[in-house]
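Journal club side-thread
Mid-discussion, someone asked how the predicted structure for our own chain would compare to the paper's figures. Pasting it here so we can look after the session.
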Amino acid sequence: EMSSGNLNCSSSQELTRKYQHVVYAVVYTLILLFGLLGNVLALWMFRAYAKETKKAVMFMKNLAVADLLQVLSLPMRIYYYLYDSWPFGQPLCVISFYLKYVNMYASIYFLVCISVRRCELIMRPLKYNSPRRKGDLLMCVAGWLLVCPCCLAFPLLRTTEQNSNSTDRAASKSVCFAELPMRDIGAPAAGVLLIAAELLGFIVPLILVLACTCLTAGSLRKQTGGAFPDLGEKRRALRMVLSCAVVFLFCFAPYHITMPLDFLVKAKILRDCSTRDLILRSHTVTLCLASLNCSLDPLMYYFTTEEFWRRLSKAELPDGTAFSRRLSCISGE
């Protein structure tokens, strides 16, 4: 009975692995197509309008760079999940694995910065009326210096060493990404890392984004006058902050619910076959949602940033009109 149970468990794990590979290959291909186009176009537009706006463009630029980093690593991921093989060497595997988490937590950081910045411009416009705040640049640098070292914990928790005595698939075939074996670091250390990732990487940022959303929404009920933003400006700010909250909740909340459970499965603490399969299949979906932010962030820029609409709808019309007027004056018509 034991051998039959082990056989059934092994069979279900293989089916789950095939399910994961199909889902990842399809979703990452779509993200690659839309994310590459969207973020390249976003960076081009931010470059054109960087001098015209003070509304968190610096943070949006860095968010687009973070998204582009992950998008550029997707072709190798897609190859791996399509062909069930990793021919690119273990260093590239680790780097690609690492970039996934850098993108996720850099995105969370910059979404919080965008929300806070837009909320501050509405709540305290006189303090934040400079179009070029050096503080924004320093916050971006600080964000990268915080996220990049902290995310090293994720690849360091995995091992690329092959154990010849093991019957695990990782021992018989080169694997990458989520299929890399976990290191045995002990329950206390694992607990500390999980709590830190959940608390600092998700719960605190979530509280900040929701607080900014509530404050910005509340400002709509206050009368405007003098140097304070008008109602239209407040509504545009609310659209931006709400978009950050939606992307945050849709992409990152489900992942951070299943992440601790997935860790318990990978660390072989949860051993029941049906429970393992359910968690792994659920985590596959939530990981895809977390990756989807690469494609959703550009949509957030386009639908909430006035400069994007102006450039897309008028397409250099003001410059063309001015040129025509100059030409008329020169020709005397």
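Post-session note: The CA atoms of residues 5 and 273 lie 9 Å apart.
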